[in-house]
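Co-fold these.
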Amino acid sequence: MVDRFLGRGRDRDARAPGTAGAPGATTAPAPPPGTPPGTTATAPPAIDAARAAVWARVLLARNARRPHTLGLIAGIADRFTELHGDRLFGDDGAIVGGLGRIGGRRVVIVGHQKGADTDENIRRNFGMGKPEGFRKAIRLFELADRFGIPVVTLVDTPGAYPGAEAEERGVAEAIARAIMVMCRIRVPIVTVITGEGGSGGALAIAAGDVVIALENAVYAVISPEGCASILWRTAEKAPDAALAMRMTAADQLALGVIDQVVPEPAEGAHADPAETARRLRGVIVEQLDRLAALPADERVAARMRRYRDFGAFDDVGAPEVPEPPERPGLADRLRRALEPMGTRLGNLGTREGRDEPPAREEV
Amino acid sequence: MPITLPFRPRRESYPPDMWTQCPGCNQMLFNKHLDKAMRVCTSCGHHFRVSAPTRLAQLLDHGSFRERDAGLVSRDPLGFVDSQPYPDRLAAAQTATGRRDAAIWGFGSLAGRRIAICALDFGFMGGSMGSVVGEKVARAAEGALAEGIPLVIVSASGGARMQEGTLALMQLVKTIAALEALRAAGLPFISVLADPTTGGVFASFAALGDVNVAEPNALIGFAGARVSAGTIAEELPPGFQRAEFLFAHGFVDRIAPRAELRAELAAILEVLAPPAPADGVPGSVRRG
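Predicted complex below.
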């Protein structure tokens, strides 16, 4: 129920405590963005190469040395005061947020926080948000709206925490509610996918007016391992799933799901976190200023339109798929015969559905 | 042309589908009785899954339903291929169900009250939400808004449709934004959660009903049990993610047996959406 502890007379200009993710401060070696598992000798070389390239990006997005949210905030914001707790249950270390300034502009920043090492990852739950984390985000979004402060969200999560306690506290409701609040608030929202954009857990804080991604970020509806284990029946086909889902920033830009890609320095953001933050800062400032110049009504309407227009479908008009040939049953015939005379039989013996669908599950 | 007599038995329809074994109690159930009991086991109360058209027939006044946008079909935005191409999977599901995608929406009346209604069909690719399902849910909400009438959505879905990638994920925002407009106009939305309602569908419109009503023992949850077990190897408590579990934790208002669902919805709507005063503009008199 307390946002932060502050020693009396100290820390008046407190920065965020535990600003981890400083350049080169970690020990975990980067997994080499090398050959993917599950490469079959029979596949054409072009597909092999494409799959390897996509998988290398997935590994880069997951790289433990990649700058994480609090580290990026330290480089992007002039000042940042972290706030804690959802006022309902607790404080989630996997989702951080607070008040800050970027080049003099007031902002509320919310993001997923992964750990830089095993200890921190346990504390941060590997960046997998729990219901209290999403409800903290909701609280901060509403706070921003009430005080007219623009919102910046930084997305980097494998997905929402899929455990029993999360279900007990309604993780799905928390995610849905967070998205609803993002649709409702009238202040500008700039979203940056900085690493992994993992499904609903990412989307809960990613429904911005504008969605930016770092070059090696990925964004998908389900983790490639999850997709592979459902559609290929083995998690080892994750690189194939990653390729099929077109989850790289460049592919997402082409789909229109993200609006802008920010190039990373050298071989990736982990090579130069300070430069990465500097580049992000420029883009965020530009977008904040652009959005702030729009009237609020127009901005919210544009946000609604952005999400309303997603979808790839055609309208082929009246049903062409033929209805299964129907021979009217006795009840239907009686009804047809009697209804013109004003007699109604209600739902007597409708011939609907002997159609137990297959017990199949798609996530 | 053969002469068809009115009382000829439907030879093609049996014997294979005359009986159904109940997975709850292993009883063999005579299908005619099962249909009469709204596909609920007469001995143990197991609720069989029902198709979207059946659901609409069970809930709405007879003959009142008018479908909208039946012609929407998904494209293949990613060129998605796993063991078979997405268009082939779509075509197979279309042939099997006679429908173009996993949702039906339209207008109908429930106990004499006009509503917009959308029902998902688990039999079509697991009821998964891609572009078409998202679009139909959004159009149902917009239809309710335009007419100033309540919205009912019956969910039965495994979640977002992987084959449409992040475009499927964006349907979460699309549907929620449409509901937000409905909420702002003070129109009620009742979410009916049938077996199963999981993943991206539960994490969007299905969880956000002004009133959430679940069917008994329906599987309702965010992460499938396999995902939980596979990702974090956590032991799951008994009855985990069943309607009763959600009820105990405060995420559904009512658990309604299928035979009572229609009456429950009517009772809720009677209070939330009383008939507008004759001079009132629909949808503008009540504020949320």
